[in-house]
Structure formats: structure tokens, C-alpha cells
Write a structure and sequence with these properties.
This protein has about 500 residues and is of the alpha/beta class. It has 3 domains: about 270 residues, Spore Coat Polysaccharide Biosynthesis Protein SpsA, Chain A (Alpha-Beta Complex), CATH 3.90.550; about 80 residues, no CATH class; about 130 residues, Jelly Rolls, CATH 2.60.120. The protein is built from 12 helices and 30 strands. The strands form 7 sheets. The chain has a 6-stranded antiparallel beta sheet, with no helix packed on it. Strands 6-9-7-8-12 form a 5-stranded mixed beta barrel. The chain has a 4-stranded mixed beta sheet with strand order 14-16-18-19, covered by helices on one side. Strand 25 and strand 26 form a beta hairpin. The two termini are about 40 Å apart.
Amino acid sequence: MTTIYPVILSGGSGSRLWPASRRSYPKQLQTLVGEHSLIQNTVLRTQTLNTAPPIILCNEDHRFIISAQLQEIDVTPLALILEPIGRNTAPAAAIAALQLTKIDAGDGLILLLPADHHIGEPENFVEAVHRAIPQAEAGALTTFGIHPDRAETGYGYIRQGDDLGNGVFKIDRFVEKPDAKTAEKYLKDKCYSWNSGMFMFRADRYLEELSEAHPEMVAACQKTLEESQQDLDFIRLDAKAFAMCPSNSIDYAVMEKTSNGVIIPVDMGWSDIGNWSALWELGEKDTSDNFCQGDVMTIDSKNCFVRSDGPLVTTIGVDDVMVIATVDSILVAARDRAQDVKTIVEKLEASGRTEHITHQCVQRPWGTYETIDAGERFQVKHLMVRPGGCLSLQMHHHRAEHWIVVEGTARVTKGDKVTILSENESTYIPVGTKHRLENPGKVPLSLIEVQSGKYLGEDDIVRFEDIYRRGGGQDLKSGTTPKLAKQHGKLNTAA
């Protein structure tokens, strides 16, 4: 039987889900529906198909978060490929197909899935994939259409052509996002489906079609892979070569041009969770049709989406509004303006602000840190170091640090001395002292860090050893592979 290789694309920023989704921690990495993140749910869905391990393409800034999330669900990817810049879905699929030809001679089936979709009826998804397999094996480029249940203007549509049997149709044409009147027409015409952005095809067939339409794209992807480097458990694409690759979607580059495209319409409880209103549609609502998450209280309010990741949020006498509160930002909008949240993100970027880039709680390979308080010459942070997590061996020119262990166990390197600190114990790191913090225990290490000095910026870090190879992938002092990585054996990418 032909092997199915899930290829999961995790390159989006989810700007319409601001302020929860941000560039450094976008929606696909977050738990928005159910108990797992969107990318975890996407991977878990493929396991019911008895597929090969997934190939994942992601932004290099998210590599350690994704590795940690895959470990949480006990999945080791076939490849985790780091994109230095975004080039849309057609080059990403080409990179995966070229990588796959090294493993499966090119005739393996690619099941291409965005990382940030929700599927409420996974059994229908699995059934549709089984219907797609013989089509893809025979050389067709197969896409999955979604039965529309409303006149949606936020999605592109696909019109089905000749009936090929077993719920499979030739693709007649792709249509851009319609206006409201046209969307109503498409809803009544049973030949139209939403364009899901999910595909299945043989790796060699996709490369053949792409080479015919855009040979320069395939050539650029080949050169990119040839000059890529293995970095720990990741394949790091060559930035210069990938920058030369044209940016295009699979739809425009291949599917709208091919005569071998087929569509399988399916009702699978699908949503791309493209905005807060989509989450309201999916959520369990109260008797007034409010969907509330977090510390929320409503009075005489209806049809609202209210979410808090921090402070208490209350509403009185409002209808059809969205209120989303994080520790550092609050969004209030009419629910029918959910698509326009992206405009706020664009305005933040244009004004030079950073609230669209990072959360107050910042993700690091070893865990997280959150600034609690800051002022002139001082800063207070809460650090959470995952079990096995290890900060780099480092030094600061301008600041001293005090560490107080709140929970867990800390292994502290200070100069040539290594000590173990337990709960309620503390230590002082003078300016200019080499130091390192590790969590040797089996529970998260919670620690308060008090910084003092004339300059407290994050760029006042000189790294000497780093098991995560930040700063070029080498020991910054000697230019050799970090000794600590060898001492710890296989890298714990959850740290």
C-alpha cells in the first residue's frame, strides 16, 4: 500500500486573532479548541490514517515550541524544516516533495494540511482521505472542498465539474472570495464548495505540474534544499537561496492551471479559525448566546464573545461584541468586524509598537519568562524552566541578578562553582560573572529574577555555550559544538 506522508504547514501569524495570537506565538501553537494546540490536533488527526510521521515546515523562531508540543503528544517528525522567510504554500509543498523524493522515490502520497484548522468531525475527514487515495495514486491532484453552510464572503470557492463517482468531481474552476450577493448564489448552487487549502497528491506528480508551470520555483527550491544544513533535529533551509524563490500559493501556481485536478466535497465540521467570530461559532454558549472564556462576568449581554487571559472582564447591556483581554492588551470590537482585527495589527506595526509581536509572557526553548515589574535600574521577572531545561552559559556586562527559587530545584553555575538550590533559597550573580541556570528535576522550576544595573536590555547577553545553538549553532567562545549538548546526550527539545 502507498505510504501517506502528512505535510503540515505552520507558517501563518494568525493576525486576526490578535491579541491572543502574535508573531512569536501564533494561533496554531495555542489551545483554542479542546485540550491540544491546533498543530497538535492536526498531527493527531493524521495518526488515525496510519500514516508515516509528519513532515513539518515552520518559521524557525517557532522550532523549539513545536518540538516541545510534538513531544507532548509523543510524535517524532520525519523532518522539521525551518523556513527563514515565508514564501507561501507552493514553494513549501515543493520543498516537502523534494525532501520526500530522498525517502520514497517520489511516489509517496503527500497529505498537505495547514496547521491551524479545526475539524469537528474527524471521522468524515478520514473517510474523505480514503476516497482521495486512489485518485492521488493515479496521478490526480486532489483537494478537499467544504460544503458551505452559510453565504461566507471570507473564503474562496471551488466549482465542481464532471462527476467521477464515489463523491469525486473534476475541478471546473476556482473562484475568488465573493461579495454577499454572489455568496448567496453559491450557497444555493450545490456545485460550489469552500476552498479548504487541504490537498493530496503524489510528490512526483506535484513536482511535474509545478515544473511545467513554474520551473524557476522548482529550481530555487532544489538549490535551497541542496544548501540547507542539519541543525540539531532540524533542517535549516538556506536563507539566501530561499529568498530567490518566487512566492505563490498552490492554488495559483498549480491547481488553477492543471487539467488533472479533482475535488472531494465533504462536511467535516471544518473551520480555519480565521477570526474571533469563528471561535464564537464553535464555542459552547450560554442561554444568551454568549461564549465566555476565563475570568468573565456578563449582565444583560447577548451574542458576545468575551475572553480573558488575565484580568476580570465584565460586560453590561451589550450585544454582538467581542472583548478579548490579555495581560498587556484589550480588544473591543463589533463581532461582525472580526475580519478587521488585522487592520489593528497593521497599525501597531506601522507605529513601531511590539504588542503584535510578543506576549508579556515570552517563550524560550527552555521555558518562559514574564516581566512582573520594571523601573529605572531594576526589573523583576518570573522564570519557568521546564524539566531538563537549561539556559545558556552566559555573562552580562551591565546588570547583576538575584535568583529566588519559588518551586522546584535549580542547578546554578556561577563562575567555577556549581550549587543546587531548593525552594525558598536564593543566590546572587554579580556583574561580569559567567553563570547558568538548569532544571535537573522532574517538575517545572519556578524562579523570581531581580535584575539591577544601568542597562537591562535582553541584548546584554554574551553566550559561551548554548545547547539550543542560538547565535549560529556553535559554542560562541570556541567555535565548536557545545559540550553541554554532548554531556546531556540527545537534546531535550522540550526544554
